[in-house]
Amino acid sequence: MESERPNTTIETYEHQHQLQQEDDDEEEEEEEENNEILKRRISSHPLYGLLVEAHLDCLKVPSLFSFQLLPSY
């Protein structure tokens, strides 16, 4: 029965690289799955709408009129 172990330095490197790539792919899939779970938990929170509204309010560009309302020091 032939062994599937690499028998040269290059084959050993390629084999290790392949194993590392498989591990990285599994970690990325797990991280992506965890991110999706977290997104669902956040978006289903009862106060999520207020969070989005507050965020959008922060992004609004102030108009020249709103600057005139600010007290001058």
UniProtKB/TrEMBL annotation:
It comes from the Eukaryota. Residues 1-11 have a biased composition (Polar residues). Residues 36-72 form the KNOX1 domain. Keywords: Nucleus. It is found in: Nucleus. Pfam families: KNOX1. Its main location: nucleus. InterPro entries: KNOX1 (IPR005540), Leaf_patterning_domain (IPR053363). GO terms for molecular function: DNA binding. Transmembrane segments: none annotated. This is KNOX1 domain-containing protein.
